[in-house]
Amino acid sequence: MPIFNAPLTAVDAKETRRYAGLAKADFDETIIREACEEAALLAGPRGVWHRYAYDCQRQTIDAAEGVVLAGTAIGRHLAGCESVICLAATVGEAIEEAVTRHFQEGRYAYSTILDAAATAAVEQTADALERAVRPAVAKEGLTMRWRFSPGYGDWPLTGQTDLLRISGAAEIGIRLTESLMLLPRKSVTAVIGLSRQAETSAAPHGCAACSKTDCPARRTPPT
pTM of the prediction? Predict the structure, then answer.
């Protein structure tokens, strides 16, 4: 299973604001900048992925023991796909430890912003992994769908168990608690569909495809 390692030179301040629920709020930019700088310094970005054949009629991944993807949302998302990439990414535990330490020191606002910066950092890591894989996929004439994670739509979090196993997440230190929480906490798992059908730009994805319109971290579509 390929391991992805890439430096994270900067954490996106705009995304940090969004994850902190401050996209439209007047907040001290110095604190946001400091948190992004600390997150970039502490992050240990790593990723891993594996590709499998996929049966979109049965919603099954052709992995050892077989994996059935439960839910209509993931079924619709992967319709027409002939294979999938199962991935996992993390930025490690050092950022989490720093968030806890700052909170214990009474820097409550800063710890909240640093936690948001850590979320932005792991999403950037997953984005970078996708960019690394895309050229090889494109050479095969395949299009990558946007990544879809357990918990999206009606795909239950119990899907994490199989996804961790078949993505090779343990290779980069990701584990799962009994309550289905990923550890390190700033980690993501996802499935990316590969198809020979061009994905249209008009197809809703990400926040636009989510029905939770009151989410504080929801991206605002460009005007």
Answer: 0.88
